[in-house]
Amino acid sequence: MPTSRPDRAFAVFGGTFDPIHMAHLACAQYVLKHCAVREVQLMPCHLPAHRASPGVSAEHRAAMVQIAIEHIPGVHLQSLELNKHSPSYTVDSLRLLREQYPRGGLLFVMGMDSLAYFKQWHQWQNILQLAHLVVCQRPGSSAEDGDCPSLLQHYGTNSLQDLHLLDAGKIMLLDNPPQDLSATRIRALLEKNQQSDELTPLIPAEVLQYIKTERLYSGI
Ligand SMILES: Nc1ncnc2c1ncn2[C@@H]1O[C@H](COP(=O)(O)OP(=O)(O)OP(=O)(O)O)[C@@H](O)[C@H]1O
Ligand SMILES: O=C(O)c1ccc[n+]([C@@H]2O[C@H](COP(=O)([O-])O)[C@@H](O)[C@H]2O)c1
Fold this sequence. Notes:
- The chain is of the alpha/beta class and 220 residues long.
- It has one domain (10-180): Rossmann fold (3-Layer(aba) Sandwich), CATH 3.40.50.
- Helices cover 38% and strands 13% of the residues.
- The chain starts with 9 loop residues before the first strand and ends in a 6-residue tail after the last helix.
- Nicotinate mononucleotide binds at residues 14-16, 45, 48-51, 88-91, 114, 121-122.
């Protein structure tokens, strides 16, 4: 690992987190373990730029993130999008983070399904001037999908050193064990009032308890 940079890289993992689930946590922990970052920040969006507003408020989604990561060292909540009442464009959030951390590698974490349509993101070229992308494997998505081949041709790297010696501009695919899990599936189970044992492997127990206490998704 290069030691010449005084500002150790950190990672930001943006998501709707409606709700946060085990695959999100596995990705965050994989990045923490394999990308030599000092921390991973989970950043729930307030108003997604690209999809309908979630039925569950940003405050509740952030509370679930906080509960889920409470006992995971090195993984923290990044709340900068929560109080914004305009769409949560990633480029704006990264600009704000860069004001706080002008130097050092900044890694934006996403799943392969997100990379596949990354060229539709607001000012996507500017995102790559502010951060690297680190991309988690996700069942059902591959590096052949959508925008992935051209992005990887121009920005791809297999070198972790690149992510630390450069501040931004590279895309690295990770080799995390894929987990076939989505928040959509969890919401469907919750809405059908499924028993907890079906949800147990999918979502932290404390998050499930919060959902029940706050009656967040209809059904339970
Ligand atoms: N199972 C998974 N494996 C890898 N990446 C994932 C997985 N689930 C979500 N992600 C990534 O996490 C980020 C945030 O995703 P999000 O909060 O929308 O979860 P989701 O499960 O995809 O939700 P939904 O089903 O509501 O779309 C995205 O970059 C997405 O690609
Ligand atoms: O900035 C954009 O144009 C943009 C478009 C699509 C997604 N994003 C961000 O990507 C992250 C994952 O989004 P999602 O829908 O998979 O939860 C989340 O932080 C979103 O704000 C951002």
